[in-house]
Design goal:
It is built from 17 helices and 20 strands. By secondary structure, the chain is of the alpha/beta class. The protein is globular and about 75 Å long. About 45% of the residues are buried.
Length: about 525
């Protein structure tokens, strides 16, 4: 909890993949929010100061499932305003005697919402707006003590509110205001947090930085800290944070060249770290070890586990003489945690494991209390703003995300040095083209993928089978959802031609037009 205590909205996590995003959107309104397990007992909530309201998150579960997640009933009677989102609303309606049906209306994606009358939750919002839905169950009959205040274009109950003016207000909405595709979503959450709950706007990223620095100093003391640098934004911002919190000779920055990095990555990382004032930077060439360990591995999760375990082993070997068993720091973000099934609470689903979350050796450090993850409650755009405040170069801040396992999860099938070299060349051309065309900063993430198939082609008068690469480019505010970047056809044709001309092994280039959901941004 922040010190001194400030007004807080608690978000109870029932396993919904956008749960932490709810908390983030509330913070964007200037109100501090904290995610807690959905089944947290009332006694534990009472330990937090200045709680002004409670949000019940979505969930992959149905209210009709055996063991469906539920909040402590006493908590909902504590006298605080409550907002149920998606599953949260369905739980309240089911608990109150309403009817929630799996056969009534299912909605996925965009849906128009139409208000019925006025409600403080929708103050300042048009009577009709676009929302983002993701539910199989729907409320067929509203529970006694509530009234319907909005419906969807498909006939579903989209919002309800309690009618007892003498009791703390309770609201439910079927759509997801936390997702950027919902119009006025932040306004709805802001209305709840400030106007309905009365919480003051006391939260900003500056206070987060101050607390993070203080926590690092308190946790580490005089012990050495090892940070595994990937070259991306997240780990570089952690490096800057550590160098602000601790003496430079206490911070050991380790860059492992796995052979899975982008073109000229090692040289660029080394220059950036020295520019931040680092005095201990160690570059380890471990490419041969990684290629050998990945030989024959084709399944995505297997590759991630191999890379994660070996990465920590290489790091441990490299720093054993220098700083023994000190703290290990990482640039883990909350998206890494929730996709790996480590969202707060016991109901989170695994989408894909991240080597900086799921590897056994990481778990050992975590269990020993020797793991620092100072960015684990932040999303990518928040990390970028924090990096700017810490003096990280703009070129690094603006860099597109790069996965921890590197090119290994952008090579579908077996990973070899030859296939990495091929993809490195393609990826470099692709990114060069985006920069030269002024498109790089318009795109949130772009990269090339080497597919495990070959396609027939013609070079001159000869028939041959060439490699197939896919290009990916998305635009996203938070990486919980993503839209495909709408290239002009001419640009794609010219980029494709350059790739096939300069990388002769490639015979075909395709463009991935899948949004998230249903796809993820990365292919593996």
């Amino acid at each position: 909890m922040p010190e001194p205590a400030i007004d807080t909205i608690l978000v109870l996590d029932f396993g919904g993949q956008t749960c932490q995003l709810i908390a983030r959107r509330i913070r964007e309104c200037g109100v501090y929010s904290r995610v807690l397990p959905g089944d947290i007992p009332l006694a534990e909530v009472d330990a937090f100061d200045q709680v002004r309201g409670i949000v019940l998150s979505g969930s992959p579960a149905s209210v009709h499932d055996a063991g469906a997640p539920a909040p402590d009933p006493d908590l909902l009677c504590r006298g605080l305003p409550v907002l149920g989102i998606c599953y949260g609303m369905q739980h309240m309606m089911h608990r109150g005697g309403g009817v929630v049906s799996a056969t009534h209306v299912s909605e996925y994606g965009r849906a128009r919402v139409e208000r019925v009358g006025e409600s403080p939750l929708f103050a300042g919002i048009p009577a009709t707006f676009r929302s983002w839905m993701s539910h199989g169950d729907a409320v067929e009959r509203v529970a006694d003590g509530y009234r319907r205040v909005a419906g969807s274009e498909y006939g579903a109950v989209a919002a309800v509110e309690s009618v007892d003016a003498a009791a703390p207000p309770v609201y439910g909405i079927q759509f997801h205001p936390e997702v950027s595709h919902t119009e006025y979503g932040s306004r709805i959450l802001g209305n709840f947090a400030t106007a309905i709950c009365g919480a003051r706007r006391q939260w900003d990223l500056t206070s987060f930085e101050q607390r993070a620095v203080a926590k690092v100093r308190a946790a580490v003391g005089a012990e050495p800290v090892v940070l595994m640098i990937s070259g991306g934004v997240d780990s570089t911002v952690v490096a800057a944070l550590l160098l602000k919190a601790l003496p430079a000779d206490q911070v050991h920055l380790l860059y492992v060249d796995t052979g899975l990095m982008r073109l000229q990555e090692t040289e660029e990382v080394h220059a950036t770290l020295h520019g931040l004032g680092a005095s201990h930077v160690q570059v380890v060439d471990a490419a041969d070890r990684f290629y050998a360990a990945l030989a024959g591995a084709t399944e995505p999760e297997t590759k991630r586990r191999i890379i994660g375990d070996l990465f920590i082993e290489v790091q441990r070997d490299a720093v054993r003489q220098e700083c023994s068993d000190g703290f290990l720091a990482q640039g883990t973000l909350y998206t890494d945690l929730i996709e790996s099934g480590r969202g707060v609470g016991a109901k989170a689903h695994v989408i894909k494991s991240h080597h900086n979350v799921a590897a056994p050796l990481i778990a050992e450090r975590r269990d020993a209390g020797l793991l620092l993850e100072p960015l684990a409650s932040l999303y990518k755009d928040e990390v970028r703003r924090l990096g700017e405040a810490l003096g990280v170069p703009a070129k690094v801040i603006a860099r597109h995300p790069f996965p921890g396992p590197g090119l290994a999860v952008r090579i579908l099938g077996e990973v070899t040095r030859e296939r990495c070299d091929l993809l490195r060349a393609v990826d470099a051309i692709y990114l060069q083209e985006l920069r030269s065309r002024g498109l790089y900063d318009q795109i949130t993430q772009a990269f090339a993928v080497l597919l495990p198939v070959r396609s027939v082609g013609v070079t001159g008068d000869s028939r041959r089978y060439g490699e197939v690469v896919a290009l990916r480019a998305v635009v996203s505010d938070d990486f919980m959802t993503a839209e495909v970047f709408p290239f002009e056809t001419a640009a794609l044709l010219e980029i494709s031609a350059r790739i096939t001309n300069e990388v002769p092994a490639v015979g075909r280039v395709v463009y991935d037009v899948s949004s998230k959901p249903p796809a993820t941004v990365e292919w593996e």
